[in-house]
Design a protein that fits this description.
The protein is α+β, with helices and mostly antiparallel strands. The chain folds into two domains: 1-77, Orthogonal Bundle (Arc Repressor Mutant, subunit A); 83-168, Glutaredoxin, CATH 3.40.30.10. It has seven helices and four strands. It has a four-stranded mixed sheet, covered by helices on one side. α6 runs parallel beside α7.
């Protein structure tokens, strides 16, 4: 595949990193979710341009790709912040105060679930479960540097963690 799309509709977006994925999976039936996952890993989200490019490579209509991307909660259609704050809302976390933790995060960052701060630093996502029930309430912060998990949270601890991350950015 060429590094840039031949149709000219993608405003010069470079798909060089996605091409090896498409070379491997484009002709494999049932591989759309894998392609979308890998595209999101590369670009951080699935833009319309990316979905159009995947459509051209696979022969799958863009509408079907968009339908899959919007059906599954794992896919994002908007860019996310440098730090993705995933706040667990599972049963153990709920019972141990995840609502209070969410309130602290929202107040501190001035955003709601699914939103990104104006400076592009943080995105908040409530998730069903992080699998760290013994640490409830818990949040994970994903970034290019890796994933950090924080447990047994309090409102004060959340503010300290987010302040420290802001200061080092």
């Amino acid at each position: 595949m060429s590094e840039k799309c031949c149709c000219g509709n993608h405003q010069g977006q470079d798909f060089k990193e996605l091409n090896p994925v498409l070379d491997k999976y484009a002709k494999t039936p049932g591989s759309l979710i894998t392609i979308l996952q890998k595209a999101q890993d590369i670009y951080g989200y699935l833009s319309i341009d990316t979905m159009n490019y995947i459509s051209e490579a696979t022969g799958i209509k863009t509408a079907k790709i968009y339908g899959v991307a919007t059906f599954y909660a794992q896919f994002r259609l908007q860019p996310i912040g440098k730090y993705l704050v995933m706040l667990c809302q599972g049963t153990a976390c709920h019972v141990n105060g995840s609502e209070m933790i969410e309130e602290a995060v929202c107040e501190f960052l001035n955003i709601k679930d699914g939103e990104t701060t104006e400076d592009g630093l943080f995105t908040l996502n409530n998730v069903a479960c992080l699998g760290c029930c013994s640490l409830a309430p818990v949040m994970m912060i994903k970034s290019a540097e890796g994933d950090e998990t924080y447990g047994n949270l309090t409102k004060d601890a959340v503010r300290e963690i987010l302040t420290e991350i802001k200061e080092r950015s």
